[in-house]
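Example 9 (inverse folding). The structure is encoded as follows.
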């Protein structure tokens, strides 16, 4: 009988700490339970985006029959030629010091000018980032050592609510971050004025100031969602809305705004707020064509199939197969 393939993941973040000592995994697991319980009682977001991406990727790998283990340092050291996965926040580079060849991601990739210094104690042979446009920022430094890998969406976690009874026409998901004082009036307020003029109803959620349950309830109550963000490496919120059967009207200027990334991004880089998107998902707009694009979007409401797009392009199994391909390159 063939042995089941095993992958050792090493994650360090707010949810789970990578603790390289006896009983470290037990200590980390207890911390995870305590933190999850506390945040649930306080109605705060239970998981970070990096951990959600890892959780969903693990789900896909296990659906393919892969045995996934987390933070098992002793096993990795007994098998130094075995490729491993490393994932998480900046501290993971100090917490995970192994000779095993490694695939990094999902997680924080240092800026190109700091990358070699920060990762000097690791044997990371390939880095992943959530979409192609952001890989282009790191390619001058990493070349073929950086590849796109999307975080999958589990449809079971996001039931189709497209046919539910609706109390509002639109959910405005406000993730405007940079130059907020200027851009909220120019984009969010302009959209609200147009909706009001048309007699359409709406509700608003601001990124970072809501619980996931509030987001789920809001999706159930609306016919569509406006996603307002300058750019996204992936954009889990709009994809979770699409998985729920909600069409997206997305602000997408195509310009890199993040001042940190602009320092080392290639000239003329085209970015996106919806890097995984096609005509089934909804429509995009710029500041200068908001009203015309919205009217066209609203007229086509019956034609969109956002949940099908997610099933075809962002499934856990598809992400897991991509991950295995990249891991084989590492090993």
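The amino acid assigned to each position is listed next.
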């Amino acid at each position: 009988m063939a042995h089941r393939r095993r992958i050792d993941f090493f994650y360090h973040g707010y949810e789970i700490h990578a603790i390289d000592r006896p009983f470290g995994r037990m200590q980390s697991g207890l911390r995870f339970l305590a933190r999850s319980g506390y945040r649930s009682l306080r109605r705060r977001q239970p998981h970070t985006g990096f951990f959600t991406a890892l959780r969903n990727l693990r789900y896909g790998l296990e659906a393919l029959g892969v045995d996934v283990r987390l933070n098992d340092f002793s096993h990795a050291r007994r098998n130094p030629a075995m490729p491993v996965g490393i994932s998480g926040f900046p501290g993971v580079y100090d917490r995970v010091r192994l000779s095993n060849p490694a695939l990094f991601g999902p997680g924080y990739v240092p800026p190109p000018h700091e990358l070699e210094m920060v990762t000097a104690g690791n044997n990371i042979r390939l880095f992943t980032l959530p979409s192609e446009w952001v890989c282009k920022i790191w390619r001058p430094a990493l070349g073929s050592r950086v590849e796109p890998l999307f975080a999958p969406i589990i449809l079971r976690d996001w039931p189709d609510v497209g046919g539910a009874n609706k109390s509002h026409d639109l959910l405005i998901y406000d993730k405007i971050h940079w130059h907020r004082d200027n851009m909220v009036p120019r984009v969010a307020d302009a959209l609200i004025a147009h909706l009001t003029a048309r007699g359409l109803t709406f509700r608003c959620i601001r990124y970072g100031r809501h619980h996931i349950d509030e987001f789920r309830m809001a999706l159930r109550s609306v016919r569509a969602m406006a996603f307002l963000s300058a750019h996204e490496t992936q954009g889990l919120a709009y994809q979770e809305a699409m998985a729920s059967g909600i069409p997206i009207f997305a602000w997408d200027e195509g310009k890199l705004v993040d001042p940190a990334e602009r320092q080392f991004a290639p000239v003329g880089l085209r970015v996106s707020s919806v890097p995984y998107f096609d005509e089934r998902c909804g429509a995009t707009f710029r500041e200068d064509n908001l009203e015309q694009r919205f009217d066209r979007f609203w007229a086509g409401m019956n034609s969109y199939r956002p949940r099908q797009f997610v099933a075809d392009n962002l499934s856990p199994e598809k992400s897991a197969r991509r991950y295995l391909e990249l891991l084989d390159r590492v090993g």
